[in-house]
Amino acid sequence: MINMFSTALLTPQEMGQADKAAIASGVPGAALMDNAGRAVAREIVRRWSRRPVLVACGPGNNGGDGYVAARYLADWGWPVTVASLEGRMPSEQTDAAHHAGLWRRPVVRLSAALLDTVREGLVIDALFGAGLARPPSGDAAAFIQALNDSDIPVCAVDLPSGVNGEDGAVLGAALQAQLTITFFRKKPGHVLFPGRALCGPTVVAQIGIPDTVLPGLAGHTAENSPDVWSATFPWPQLTGHKYSRGHALVVGGNRMTGAARLAARAAARAGAGLVTLAAPEPAWPVYATALESIMVEGFCDEYSFESLLADTRKNVFVVGPGLGVSETTQNQTLQILAKQRACVLDADAISSFSGQPERLFAAVSEKSVLTPHEGEFARVFNVSGSKLERARMAARTSGAVVLLKGADTVIAHPDGRAIVNTNAPPDLATGGAGDVLAGMIAGLMAQGMPPFNAACAACWLHGEAARQHGPGLVADDLIHLIPAALKVLRRVPVN
After folding, report:
1. Phi, psi at 34, each rounded to 5°
2. In b/e form, how buried is each residue of 127-162, taking b as 16+ CB within 10 angstroms?
3. YjeF N-terminal domain location, by residue (predicted)?
């Protein structure tokens, strides 16, 4: 079971459908717009002291929200100037035109020169929102550039103008906001870079759209949250024992021994009942002396390696960390995948198939989780588009769950579902953090958590563990902070 509705990410098209569905259910469009603009005004009053406000309004619904926000702020005693793009008012017979008509004060033409009137004030960006389909031009482009060059704070309505709501891309030029207020649900552009960096904090305001519209239009993309996967999280049971909590096997290499050790310890911390590290005989003493709660078994050739895999109680494998890019790594990976058990493929287990990805894709399944960073991803996947599109295509092409790492990690299922993780602090950009993540995924899968859910849960816990530490984090620290992250998870209320 997986719930993607509470944190669903709606494309601009899906949000338009949500508006229409709400209106069809009896909620007037003008009321939705009034609620949206009032929410913007309330958030501004909550965060800033009274000051001059310039409201930059476009000709569409985003501009309509701006007129409403201007009216409420003016009624509350704020000095407000409304500027329309190229002197255009919203089209007649629209909700935006209705609310523009309720603004009984002057409307000036938008220009960069107007910024001189609010040097100590605030700008509300209600130009385009998520509906922009082409780069800003003319007065809009000049205004965006001048505003970005100033130090005037910006509150964006829906999305900073110039940011694509579908994928977070910048269309020519985009505003840098200090606050973004969106409605009902976030869009992919709020959580994918570079859009995410331009939004500042994003507040989601509820404006009267009922959640009942979601099943008809959402369910494929969501922001990562315990709401998504907590129903399948494998908390220890009173009647459980180590054998009921699974047995993870991590494959170690000859030289970069730290990577596999991190993965093995992370699998144990994530709850696997037993963890074995399979080590080449020459490196066996290194692993055996460094690990206490982890069993270490040696192998000397493919036949002894095969015997390690034969035990069906070993129900999940981790292959790749510290193995090196080689034919040997490729062969070990294929031996493991041939067992048709759950498997996490990381780092060198992916890169070793550079130039022959079809061999990898023929062997993996929905029981497999691939965890590449962008460089490793490019070695085996020849796909283009946004990060969300590329992860989805990779999962569909390979038939495996794909976790494409980064500041905006995307987890994609072959059936098209995708999750964007947003809780990872920048401190996670450190060597070995990915090895820990691979082990955590395996530890959850060992306990029976479905691969997609396990990848989402491990990613969230990984970010929470890093948040617990803060600056100065190294990968070893993450191992010790997994219990703290699990304690936080226990306390998280779930919708």
Report:
1. -60, -45
2. bbbbbbeeebeebbbbbbebbbeeebbbbbbbbbbb
3. 15-215
pLDDT band at 353 (very low <50, low <70, confident <90, very high): very high
Angle made by CA atoms 121, 127, 132, in degrees to the nearest 5: 145
Instruction: Identify the H or E element spanning 226.
Output: helix 226-229
pTM over 0.85: yes
Residue 361: how many other CB atoms lie within 10 Å: 16
In order of their start, the domains of the chain are: 12-218 (3.40.50.10260), 226-491 (3.40.1190.20)
Residues that constitute the known binding site for AMP? 405-409, 434
Output the pLDDT for position 419: 98
Residue 493 has pLDDT above 90, yes or no: no
Q: Which residue positions form the known binding site for K(+)?
A: 62, 125, 161
Residues at the binding site are 61-65, 125, 129-135, 158, 161, 259, 322, 373, 405-409, 434-435
Q: What was the pLDDT predicted at 495?
A: 72
Question: What is the DSSP code string of 32-59?
Answer: HHHHHHHHHHHHHHHHS-S--EEEEE-S
- Token pair for residue 147? 């505003």
* Mean pLDDT within 226-248: 96
Q: Single out the residue of 37, 10, 63 nearest to residue 208, CA to CA.
A: 37
pLDDT tens-digit profile of 57-96?
A: 999 999 999 999 999 999 999 999 999 987 777 878 899 9
Judge contact between 251 and 284, C-beta under 8 A.
no
Annotated binding site for (6S)-NADPHX, which residues? 61-65, 129-135, 158, 259, 322, 373, 435
First to last CA, the chain: 14
pLDDT band of residue 476 (cuts 50, 70, 90) is very high
469 contact partners, CB below 8 Å, separation of at least 6: 427, 477, 478, 481
Q: What pLDDT is attached to residue 53?
A: 98
Report CA 352 to chain centroid distance, whole Å: 27
Alpha-carbon distances of 208 from 46, 48, 90, 95, rounded to whole Å:
21, 25, 23, 15
